[in-house]
Amino acid sequence: MILGIETATPVCSVGLANGQCPGEEIHVIGKSIHAEKLPLLVDQLFKKAGIEFQHLQGIAVSIGPGSFTGLRVGLGFAKGMALGLGIPLIPVLTHDALVRGVPLVKEYAVVLVPSRKNEVYGRLYRQNGNFWDPQEPVGVYRIDRFKEELPSRDVVFAGPGAEMYRDQIGALYHGTLEIKASQPSGLHVAYEGIRRMEKGEACAPDEVIPFYCASFQGVD
Questions:
Q1: DSSP assignment of 58-97, as one string?
Q2: Cα 180 to the chain's mean position, in Å?
C-alpha cells in the first residue's frame, strides 16, 4: 500500500493505492492550509480505508514544481512519517502525477502549473500506448511557446495552469483546442509512486528534496 501526498498547489490531497483495488482519496482546497490540514486528512484517510499505518510500503510525495510553502509542508510531513515507520519515500514530479488524469485521446499532452505572471511550469508528453511519455524536462515557459512547437490540433492542455490561462491558450489555437481541467490528486501521486517504486526509484527519506524547476521560482 502506498500513500500519496500532493501539496504543490492550493489543493491539499492525500490518496491510498495498492495497484489492484480502487484507491481512496480525500482533499481540501485553500491557500496556506496545508500545514493545518495535511495531518488531519491523512488520519481521516486511513480511518476511511480501514487500514493501519503499518500496512504502508512507501510514501509517494509530490516534489514540485509548485508552491514553495506547500512543497516544504508536504515533503516535511512525508519525511517524518517515513522515518517513523522505517519506509522509503518515492519522489513524484507534480506534472507526472497530473498527466495521469488526462485521457489518452490526443497525440500530445501539455501539463501546466502556474508560475509567475504569464508564465507556467510546463511539460510536454506524447502518447505511447497506455501511458504518457515525457518528451522534455519540466521548464518555465510563456504560454505562446507551445504554439510554436505544437502547431497541430492533436494536443490537449491540462493542469491548473491550463485552466488559469484557458482564454489565452484557446486564442492561440483559435478556439479549437481541448483543455482538460485536471486538478492535483494524492491518488494520482500514489499510483505514480507505485510505478516508480516498481522501477526501483524509492529513496531514503533524507535523499528527497523539493524540485523548484529554477533558482527559486516557487509560487505561493
A1: EEEEEEESSBHHHHHHHHHHHHHHHHHHT--EEEEEHHHH
A2: 15
106, 75: one domain: no
Output the pLDDT for position 139.
93
Is the four-CA dihedral 122, 128, 130, 133 of positive or negative sign? negative
Report yes or no: 202 and 3 within 8 Å, Cβ to Cβ: no
Q: What is the pLDDT of residue 215?
A: 44
Which amino acid, 145?
A: R
% residues pLDDT > 90 (the chain): 72
Statement to judge: residues 54 and 113 lie in one domain: no
Residues 7 and 84 in one domain: yes
Read off the pLDDT of residues 189-212 as tens digits, 9 standing for 90 and up: 999 999 999 999 999 999 999 998
176-179 — which CB contacts under 8 Å span 24+ positions?
177/153, 178/105, 178/106
The number of domains in the chain is 2
- Asked if residue 153 and residue 70 are part of one domain, the reply reads no
Give me the CATH number covering residue 28: 3.30.420.40
Give the residue-averaged pLDDT of 103-119. 89
Q: What is the mean pLDDT of residues 99-113?
A: 92
One domain for residues 46 and 109 = no
Q: Which amino acid is at 125?
A: Y
